[in-house]
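User: Show me a protein chain along with its predicted structure.
Assistant: Here is one chain, sequence first, then structure tokens.
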Amino acid sequence: MTWRLISVVVTAIVAAPAAAGPVTPLFAAGDPIRLEIRGPISAIVDGPREKVTPRPSELSLFGSGERHPIALTPRGITRLRRETCRFPPLRIEFVTPPAVTSLFAGQRRLKLVTHCRQAEHFQQYVLLEYAAYRLYNLLTPASFRVRLATLDYINGNGRPYVSRVGFLIEDKDDLGRRIGQRPAAVGDSVGLFRLEPRAAARSALFQYMIGNLDWSMKAGPAGEGCCHNSRLFALPSARSGAADLLTVPYDFDFSGLVNAPYAVPPDGSDVSVRRRVYKGYCHHNRAALLAAVEFRSLRPALLAEFAAIPQLDVRTRRKAVDYLEEFFAEIASDERMATKLLAGCLK
């Protein structure tokens, strides 16, 4: 059977993507917002970053009069380390539920991706990681939505700390409700045959597109549970013994697309993070061919996403588009897919 025929056959045997459901107001639109976070910012930045007590703070939406009591906590792994990021990523927890008329209605907790370091060029890395989430949104509704924001950080004494770009990430429970699935409770690893093929293949091909190796869809770091930079959702309609887990990727700062200065390949080798390595499984090769058809059909929209982010400077935008164009050349046909990617699939 030829690769092209397999592409046709798999159309009939692979499940369709999850249908989009209701979205919380915060993630229902894509226009950037401006927020003020007022609290002990200097203490959060300069203080201990492990096992810290959430710090009482306040979140305000510019121009709306909205003010929300929140608790701020540093979060993350690599970016939590002071030697990596001067300014840590943050977790926002709402102390009281926002009103139903609020932009934050329905929110309980949110991840905030911050600027890492105050040098202006670090904002470009934030924007590129934001773009990666947006690219995956174009491929499937079973993806974490994001909202870009300019953040004015103010110390509790009223003194401005810094104003920088960042973005908020949809909570996993809200994503689950939106796609009609719940976050799956699994151990440190899951069997390959439990992964829904279409979602797994799409995720692996996307990670290849952005040049990311910092992930696993079936295992996590020792003691941290499954899965590394991949969230699993339970498929309620799966038959007994059938694939019952949907994988959703997140956390793309180690990708070649972003090319952050602190990013290194997982094995610590000297290979550039810009070099792509396919980490999809041979078991999903048929679904990967179908996923490539989706990627090729969405090429104009995927490339146009960078132009939709005005804060990206011209050089950064051009490099990002060129990087993705290299990918599209590699998946231009089923035959190229077979030789460039699938021949190196994981058993």
